[in-house]
Design brief:
It is built from 11 helices and 19 strands. The chain is an alpha/beta fold. Strands 1-2-3-5-7-9-11-13-14-15-16-17-18-19 form a 14-stranded parallel β-sheet, covered by helices on one side. Strands 8-10-12 form a 3-stranded parallel β-sheet. The radius of gyration is 26 Å and the shape is globular.
Length: 444
C-alpha cells in the first residue's frame, strides 16, 4: 500500500533485485527536497505506512521520523489484546524517534485503566515539542474508563510547549473549568477550543481582551456545566448545548451560533434569543436543534413554545434547524424563523421523527400565511415523509419565496432504516406537478 501511494506522488518505480532506478545518473526520489517528502508525501500515509517507507532506500531511512503530524487512531481496535498491542506500538514510536517539533498530535482511542498513564506520557512528549494542534478523542469508549486531564502538566515550567497551541479538542476528557481557563490565559495563540462530554467542567469563564485570539468555541454535552461566561473580542463561532447559565458580553465578531437544547430542560426559544440578544444583529449562520418528543430516548420531555415575535436577524443568510419530534406536529410555525430573517438565502431543515410509522393526524386546514420573502434561494428538507405537516411547510416555502432556485428533498432522516422511507419515485410523482419549472427539484 505504501509503495503504491508513493508511486502516485513521486513516479517511484519498484526495483527488481540488483537493479537501480535511474533518471540520468541519479534516482528521481533522491532529487526531491526533504520538505516535500516530509510535509507533502508522507503525511498522506498512515503512521504505520510511513514507517515502512524506511526500507525503500537509504534516502528514506529516517525521513518518516520528521513527520510534523502524529495521528494515533485505534478506535477500530475492539479487543483488549489489540488495544494493548497498539499502546505498545505507540510507546515504541515515541521512544525510538526524534520528532523535533509537532504541528498536530491526535489520539483517538478506546481508553482503559491500563493505558491512562501511557496517554499522560504521550502528552508530555507532545507538549515538549512546540505542539500546535491537540486532539484527545475518547468518545467511543466502551470500557467505562474516564481519562482525567493531568493538570499537573500545566504547572511544570519545563513543559512550555503548550504555549504554541492553536487548537485544542477534548472529547470525553474530564477536566475542570480552572484547567481550561489556565490554557486560555497561557496559550496566547489559541484559536479553537472544543470541549465535549466533560463531566467535571461546572463553571467556566472564557474572557479576555485584545490578547485573546480565540475564534471558535464549543462547549457541548457537558452535563455538569452550570455557568458559562464568554467575553472574547475575536470569537466568530460558538456552539453550545445549554443556554441556561450562558452569558455573552463582548463578542462583536460572533456571526455563527449553534444551539442544541438537549441539555436544557424547559428552556423556551424566547429565552434562548434573549441570551443571544447581543449578537442577533450580526448573526450570519444560526443552527438550532429543537426537541418535542415524548419518548425516553431523547432524555426528557419538552414542548417547544410557540415561535412568534422573534427579533429580526437582518444579516442571517443561513438557517439550519434540526427538529426531533413525534412526527405529527405542525411545522409551519417554524416559518416564523424565516420571516425573522429577511435576507436569508439558505434554509436547511432536518426532521427526525420518533414514531414509526408516522401518522398523518387529521387536523383543521392550516391558516394560509402570506409573508413574501425575496432572498431565499435554497431549501433542503431532510426526513421528508409526505405527511400533511411536511407538505404544509414545503407549500409555505413555495408560496412565499419568490426567488427560490432549488429544493432538495431527502427522505433519509438519519435514524430509521431505509425500508421506512417514502420511495423516491413516489415523492417525485407528487411534488413535480407542484414545483414550478424555474425551480430545480432534487430528490436524493
Amino acid at each position: 500500500m505504501a509503495v503504491e501511494r508513493l508511486q502516485i506522488h513521486t513516479n517511484f518505480q519498484p526495483k527488481k533485485c540488483g537493479e537501480t532506478s535511474i533518471v540520468g545518473d541519479e534516482d528521481r526520489i533522491s532529487q526531491l527536497p526533504d520538505d516535500i517528502l516530509v510535509n507533502n508525501i508522507l503525511p498522506l500515509l498512515s503512521l504505520k505506512e510511513a514507517g515502512r517507507t524506511s526500507v525503500l532506500s537509504s534516502r528514506w531511512t529516517n525521513l518518516w521520523a520528521h513527520i510534523p503530524r502524529l495521528n494515533f487512531d485505534a478506535k477500530s481496535a475492539l479487543h483488549v489484546i489489540e488495544r494493548h498491542k497498539y499502546v505498545e506500538w505507540m510507546d515504541s514510536v515515541i521512544r525510538s524517534r526524534e520528532f523535533l517539533s509537532l504541528k498536530e498530535f491526535n489520539i483517538c482511542y478506546r481508553i482503559d485503566k491500563s493505558s491512562r498513564k501511557s496517554v499522560t506520557r504521550w502528552l508530555e512528549f507532545a507538549f515538549a515539542r512546540q505542539l500546535e494542534r491537540l486532539t484527545l478523542d475518547f468518545q467511543e469508549n466502551t470500557t467505562g474508563t474516564t481519562y482525567c486531564f493531568p493538570e499537573a502538566l500545566l504547572n511544570r515550567s519545563t513543559l512550555v510547549g503548550f504555549k504554541s497551541l492553536k487548537a485544542i479538542v477534548f472529547k470525553s476528557v474530564s477536566l475542570s473549568g480552572g484547567a481550561i481557563e489556565f490554557l486560555l490565559r497561557n496559550c496566547q495563540l489559541l484559536e479553537q477550543l472544543v470541549v465535549q462530554e466533560s463531566e467535571t467542567t461546572t463553571k467556566l469563564q472564557v474572557c479576555g481582551g485584545s490578547s485573546l485570539k480565540l475564534e471558535h468555541l464549543e462547549m457541548v454535552h457537558c452535563q455538569g456545566l452550570k455557568s458559562l461566561k464568554v467575553s472574547a473580542p475575536r470569537l466568530t463561532t460558538l456552539k453550545v448545548s445549554r443556554v441556561k447559565g450562558l452569558l455573552l458580553e463582548k463578542v462583536p465578531m460572533l456571526v455563527n451560533v449553534s444551539v442544541n437544547f438537549c441539555d436544557d430542560n424547559s428552556v423556551s426559544i424566547k429565552h434562548a434569543f434573549s441570551v443571544l440578544a447581543c449578537c442577533i444583529p450580526q448573526l450570519q449562520t444560526l443552527c438550532l436543534t429543537l426537541y418535542n418528543c415524548g419518548y425516553g430516548w431523547i432524555g426528557h420531555v419538552k414542548e417547544i413554545d410557540e415561535i412568534c415575535e422573534l427579533p429580526v436577524m437582518p444579516k442571517l443568510n443561513k438557517l439550519v434547524i434540526e427538529y426531533i419530534a413525534n412526527g405529527d406536529e405542525s411545522l409551519v410555525r417554524l416559518s416564523a424563523l424565516i420571516r425573522a430573517s429577511p435576507n436569508l438565502e439558505e434554509f436547511l431543515f432536518h426532521f427526525k421523527w420518533c414514531r414509526i410509522p408516522r401518522k398523518d393526524r387529521k387536523t383543521k386546514a392550516a391558516t394560509t400565511i402570506r409573508s413574501p420573502h425575496n432572498h431565499l434561494k435554497v431549501f433542503k428538507f431532510r426526513g421528508y415523509y409526505g405527511c400533511t405537516n411536511d407538505v404544509e411547510l414545503l407549500s409555505y416555502v413555495l408560496e412565499n419565496c419568490a426567488v427560490l432556485e432549488k429544493i432538495i428533498i431527502d427522505p433519509n432522516d438519519g435514524i430509521h432504516p431505509k425500508e421506512e422511507y417514502i420511495p423516491r419515485k413516489v415523492i417525485k410523482q407528487k411534488l413535480e406537478p407542484q414545483v414550478p419549472q424555474r425551480i430545480e427539484l432534487v430528490i436524493l
